[in-house]
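User: These chains co-purify. Model them together.
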Amino acid sequence: MNDFSELENQLRKLRPAQPSPNLVIRIECALAEEPSTPTAAVLPRKRRFHFNWLSLGLGLTAATALVLFASVRFQSPAKKTPALASTPLTPAISTNSSAQFVPAGLTQVVYHTRDEGLHFTNSNQPVRRLRSQTRETLQWHNPKTGATLRISYPREEVSLIPVSGQ
Amino acid sequence: MENVATDENWKTCFCQLAPGLVLFARQWTRSAADAEDIVQEAFVRFWRKQHDIANLGLLYATVRSIALDFLRRDSRRARRESTIASESEQAIQPAFEIEDDSQRALVAALDGLPREQREVLVMKIWNELTFAEIASALEISQNTAASRYRYALAALKKTLAST
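Assistant: Joint model of the two components:
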């Protein structure tokens, strides 16, 4: 081992980078929180916020785009009717076949709900925080062609429920 | 049951161990932030069960287990990070506070060690674990832990001599 004593000293002189000061605060917060499943042997991994927001943002963007697309399609036949009368067949087929999407349904499936315990607002009001994860599905149907258009996106909702002081 | 949030003991224990723990976790991550996430999750899980820092082997085993789990779950991200890292070494945040060129060479030699040797070295040098504690954390024999440590030092010495 003496062969390596000098090398060991050199290695000990290397100082690991200091962790960020926030780490202790984060651990303090995590320890202050009650575990969500006290009887479980393994704690569930916390989902990363940026992932949730990203998927939520993409989902909402796609939904908005589709709704705008659908609304433009719904409005277009009324404006084009005179034109259709003067120009028969070809435009009429394309317009009629695709412009008849009608809203067919909206489903919301709550697949995970977690009670995150008691929290205090800025005004020291005690609230219970509930986090629920939902998948929403919007659906349109074209009765003429039988085509359906469906969009599904995840959604995370945090509810703060005031707790009475009794 | 005692409220862990009011117990200040963990802060004393953690502040002593934090740099070494984060360095240990850094072996499986490219960024310090990910390593800190791993250490946070491991320490919270460990402290809730143990309330005592005596069982260091278990603490490091928890960090290692969560780090490997992190690698598996985020393999796509890890691949992306490793691609980026290979393209630009500057993107990797340093795991040590480097003061001169000799230390830079030492860190480069450390990075070249096989993982099983490097983790023993990190636990022994910067976390001051005994071979018994290292063996417990890695679920290997003490002899194997000691051998890996010697192999690591020999490899480092050889690399440094050739540069």
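The interface with chain A takes residues 4-5, 10-11, 14-15, 18-20, 22-23, 32, 36, 39-41, 43-45, 47-48, 69, 73, 93-98, 102-103, 106-107, 121, 125-126, 150, 153-154, 156-157, 160 of chain B (CB under 8 Å).
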